[in-house]
Amino acid sequence: MILGLSAGLFTGIHVVLSLLGILAGFLLLGTLIGRKKHTFWTPVFFVANILTDVTGFLFPFKGITPGIILGVLSLVALLVAGVAVSNKKLRGLYVSAVATALFFNVFVLIVQSFEKIGFLKSIAPTQASPVFGITQLAALVLIILLAVTAWRRFRSII
What we know:
This protein is mainly alpha-helical. The termini are far apart. Helices cover 76% and strands 0% of the residues. It is built from six helices and no strands. The chain has one domain.
């Protein structure tokens, strides 16, 4: 039990928060590309991702794992984005921090998907498999392209 919830229910809540954070992150980058500063997706992105990171730390501790390290780095990126969100001079930093936090969450989604989904595990049984690496690279390139586009368009609004 975690926080009085069964392990399965707690894991389900963590996964839903993670997926909501990823969706909100992509939609937030889209609104920045559309030159909108604050939208519905801004607080959803922050809250869902912070809760994803925090709930990730509540699973039984088995030592420092890549997931814990990414959770800490994600919280740092979210903190930077939170500080930069309202400062016109820090718009580039804001977009970069949002994209970084989003990528960390997508990275973990890909890792977990290849570990837990039978079809994906069969085509890439280890993280050294080319399909796994190509998938991570494609996610990174997509998020970088969205972030660069968002930064170019968003920085030009008053």
